[in-house]
Amino acid sequence: MLAEYGDEAKPLAGGQSLVPMLAMRLARFDHLIDLNNLGELTGVEHTGDGLRIGAMTRQATIGADPLVASHAPLLAMATTHIGHFQIRNRGTVGGSLAHADPAAEYPAVAAALGAKLEVASVRGTRLMEAADFFEGAFATSLDGDELVVAARFPTWDDPSGFAFEEVARREGDFALVGAAVGVGMDTAGIIRRASIAMLGVGGAPVRCTEAETALLGCMAVGGDLDEADIGRLALAGSEPTDDIHASSSYRRRVGAVIVARAVAAAARRAVESSREGCDV
Amino acid sequence: MTRGYRSPDPAAVSTGVEASEAAGRFVGQSVKRVEDRRLVAGYGQYVDDVRLPGMLHAAFLRSDLARARVRRLDTTAAAGLDGVVAVLTAEDLNHYVDSLRSSVNPPDLAIVPGHVLAPGDVRFVGDPVALVVAEDRYLAEDALELIDIDYEPLAPVVDYEQAAGSPHLVHPELGTNLGASGSGPDPGLARVFESAHLVVTETFHQQRQCNMPMETRGLVAHWQRHAGRLDLWASTQSPHELAFTAARVLQIGEHQVRVHMGDVGGAFGQKVYSGRDEMAVLLAARDLGRAVKWIEDRRENLMASNSARVDRLTVTMAVDADGRILGAEIDHLSDSGAYPLGGAPAKSAQLVSMFPGPYRIPRLGWSTATVFTNTVGRGAYRGPWQMETVGREMMIDLAAQRLGMDPLDFRRRNVIERAELPHTTATGRVYEQISPAETLEQAAEMIGYHSFRAEQAEARARGRLLGLGLSLFIEPTSMGRGALGAEGAVVRVEPDGTVTVSMGTGAHGQSLETTIAQVVADELGVEMERVILRQGDGTPYGFGTGGSRSAVIAGGAARAAASEVRARIGRIAAHLLEAAPEDVIVDRGSAFVAGTPARQVSVAEVADAAYRRPESLPEGVPEGLEHTARYRAPEVTHSNAAHACICEIDSGTGVVRILKYVVSEDCGNMVNPMIVEGQIAGGVVQGVGGALYEWAPYDADGNPRATTLLDYVMPTAAEVPILEHGHVVTPSDTPGGHKGVGEGGAIGAPACVVNAVNDALGPLGIRLSRQPLTPDTIISAIAEAESR
Ligand SMILES: Cc1cc2nc3c(=O)[nH]c(=O)nc-3n(C[C@H](O)[C@H](O)[C@H](O)COP(=O)(O)OP(=O)(O)OC[C@H]3O[C@@H](n4cnc5c(N)ncnc54)[C@H](O)[C@@H]3O)c2cc1C
Q: Which residues 760-779 of B are in CB contact (within 8 Å) with A?
């Protein structure tokens, strides 16, 4: 149908972003294609190297799913920050990713974990890296006739730890700035893998590669890791947006604080996960 | 005087505070709200729930420029759309209305021009230009997009601090942007300032806020030409003011107007007066002869209803070395926007008059001005004059800091003590039944003032930013002058013994269905559930509900009418029981002879006799069982309160969390303590919103930047602290000893929160005086302090 109607049609998922836009007459389509009855688009599946989550899986389902909690804990942590429970009961992972709000949580998590998106059209199915999928604010590389079918979130090897931090005006508001962080260690407690993705800083989620590199080789806890420094490095040179809720300089300064807090928490959890691993 | 406070333990709520002397079976008790049975279950009836046969729907085309000339306005395509009944412009409607005067505006006051729709030029973003009436709302909005309009942009006046000197005029008809001004210099002040130990000057700013009722404005109007009758369903605080406006605009008699009141989903001052939008809808309904519904959407409510609190107050205060206030001078500037609600620009008289608040301030000099700008008009908002408390309470903290004195001690030194009453302020107000010193002590005790200071010192040592704020004020309530001077009530016992109370009020959250029933039930000696309140059509004239006036003024009228009916019940019952009227007691719905309760007759039987068996009535007692009374209120009744709160600031993100909030207040005898606390709590939440969250700014071109609830940030349940309430009870000298309490929460809270934030930021050398204190404001202040 997307191929048939082109720009005149839009898929309707949870409707938590699309319907307000229609109500405010910011967008109008001749056809809405309701995805809500497509059972094959829902569900969390374990695929060996990670999780495959159907596009129509509700945010609330993801937040409560035991597989998500154990195999992609960062996704579960981020979920509690999405709106209010009423929103999460309707909103979907596919909608969140496709909508690509610059302050949304899931795109940052997808970027941090290196998720892949399964995208389908009458022309066939392709797998896209999160890094290639997000192009900017509300912009993705999805073609007009394509649908997000599922997102694949890889599971990180233990010992690893994750943290999601954000600051918002109120409980449930879109973040002013936030960070999704993953830290993987070797058995000696040295960081061997690091991922930092920020939301609210650029149009698309921003991976802070310099800061990630600086983390590698540090002791996760009790050593040479200077979180504040990592935070500053993560935001160095960035030009975050300016809006009614916060200035660019706020986002830059507080973004660094948020990254520092998330890095500290993720590193602590990585160490905890290695201890639990020993106990077993 | 009684006092008492309790913990926020919900189980404690029903136990109530210590009963005051005036407590009755119902009055003084925390009776559950009668309204909630339907509201909580989702059966409230709001304007949008009204559906009439053949009803049409209206939508406004609003300007998207702040100031422009309309070069072309072509409605042909819109009018031609299937389902569109009419497209009306200034040409069709404006000649009907000469001014936007309301019933409370004195005749000599400058009134903005009476343009119903924009007259060839637009004066703010949101200015109504055309009204489309169609078979449904969707069609009406579709038609708006077909209206062909072309503007020639003109330079807008956006910044109110520059408006008076601007060469551009908001209303060319008036020849000036100055809406009103005044001054009252005190020549003796100069000498006081010269010789004082310390003179402190600071300017405080409050930002644009919106009333934000959950139910936006709305109106259904149905003119039946042949019956000569206008039926209105309105979300209003003042059904009689609406009837007044409708009759004046349509040039019909007030007796032809019927205002039907359902539930009102909040108003906070926004629904006292009818504005231009309502007038346009009334005129359209008259022209079309069919019912027309207009429901404002949230975007319109934010950009075109009204805004409030755009104030600048400069305070200069002189103190002696012991911390005694010697005198003050204030300069107030406010923004009236383009078309202020109620027709007249904001006047600052109330603000000046209240500035001394609960303190001995022997001298006060003042100057005030309000200006027009190309922004949405100013309107009343819960405690419209509260900038006096904002400025005074922040200045007091600042003066205390400069003196090196604790802010509680500073207040203790200046607060008016009971022994000094009556006290006349420098502005001529006379306080008689107030208790500011007692509420200050109670609030300090409840917040744990002294143990907090120790905790704060320890927290500071560990780098945490904890702060405590205080705020005291006197709340002028039940102001009774002019159209506001009196209210009426009809108390009628129906033939079956149930009781109807008809009043000109417009309850919109005050719980009058409960509190008036409490008052009347006690006065009559019947069960509360037998008493219902009727508002709107057919009720005696009254200005309505607002200005914290209904408990005292409308309640006074209900009490007076009920007391007369009770006397009549006594006389009829005495006759039926063959006893002397003075021996008859009416209680719990029956009348009996004192000492022999077995000799009794129910109020229902008395009513039956009064209506259906006139021959059984005693000589001289009129048939029927109803009485109309009007109560003339004293000019003002003063309530007072002390607020205290503790907050913590995250120095990394600038986020403020309020950890504890207490209010000690004195509103005289409480009709219903639970409802009093509800009124205070609601006001505090709005005040917290004003201090930390809510803001409706304009950009330099006059575009509103907050037109959805995504951008206009209201505090929610998650942000609001649990409140603890304390009460000091000093009865007023009105019948029942009540005082108003509707606005105080919103008056006291902003200064209390800002003072707490400044106290927390003290160690960093930061003191903020411009609201709102968003995370961004706080972080940029911290960044600036670091770079000093
Ligand atoms: C009050 C409120 C607060 C919110 N707070 C947050 C928050 O804090 N953080 C946050 O991240 N979000 C927040 N949201 C947005 C919410 O999470 C949305 O649910 C989400 O952004 C979109 O998901 P949806 O399923 O509702 O998609 P819809 O609204 O149905 O669709 C959004 C867009 O995505 C497209 N789309 C949907 N599914 C697909 C698909 N499978 N393939 C291709 N395109 C698709 C639609 O065509 C549309 O363009 C909030 C929403 C509200 C109303």
A: 774-776, 779
Choose among B706, B774, B783: nearest Cβ to A253.
B783
Is the domain defined by B481-632 classed in CATH 3.30.365.10? yes
CB B193 within 8 A of CB B315: no
- Tell me the backbone φ, ψ of residue B566, rounded to 5 degrees: -60, -40
* CATH top class, domain B47-154+217-295: alpha beta
Query: How confident is the model at residue B4, as a pLDDT?
Result: 59
The pLDDT tens digits for B396-424 are 999 999 999 999 999 999 999 999 999 99
- pTM for the structure as a whole: 0.95
CATH at A27: 3.30.465.10
Residues A125 and A14 placed together within one structural domain of the fold = yes
Q: What is the pLDDT of residue A46?
A: 95
Cβ atoms within 10 A of the Cβ of B702, count? 22
Given A133, A154, A175, which residue is the final one in a domain? A154
How distant is the Cα of B718 from the closest Cα of chain A, in angstroms? Answer: 6
Q: Which amino acid is present at B650?
A: D
B427: Cβ contacts below 8 Å, ≥ 6 apart: B352, B353, B354, B355, B356, B364
Q: Could you give the number of structural domains in chain A?
A: 2
**What local confidence, expressed as pLDDT, does residue B216 receive?**
97
Cβ–Cβ below 8 Å for A249 and B783: yes
- Residue range B277-282: average pLDDT? 96
Q: How confident is the model at residue B6 (pLDDT cuts 50, 70, 90)?
A: very low
The answer to whether the B311-478+636-787 and B481-632 domains have the same CATH topology is yes
ipTM above 0.90, yes or no: yes
CA of A99 to the centre of ligand 1 (A): 6
The whole domain housing A240 covers 160-279
B667 burial via Cβ count (<10 Å: 0-12, 13-18, 19+):
buried
Instruction: Look at residues A154, A182, A217 and tell me which one is the last residue of a structural domain.
Output: A154
For residues B316 and B10, give the distance between their C-alpha atoms in angstroms, rounded to a whole number.
44
Q: Give the model confidence (pLDDT) of B84-122 as tens digits.
A: 999 999 999 999 988 777 777 776 667 888 899 999 999
Say if residue A90 is in the same domain as residue A225. no
Nearest-CA distance from A38 to chain B in Å?
Answer: 30
Residue-wise pLDDT for B552-583, tens only, equals 999 999 999 999 999 999 999 999 999 999 99
- d(C-alpha A74, C-alpha A57), whole Å: 17
Contact B470, B642 (CB under 8 A): yes
Mean pLDDT value of segment B630-656: 96
Q: Do residue A150 and residue A167 come from a single domain?
A: no
CATH number, residue A212: 3.30.390.50
Structural class in CATH, domain B311-478+636-787: alpha beta
B268 CB within 8 Å of a chain A CB: no
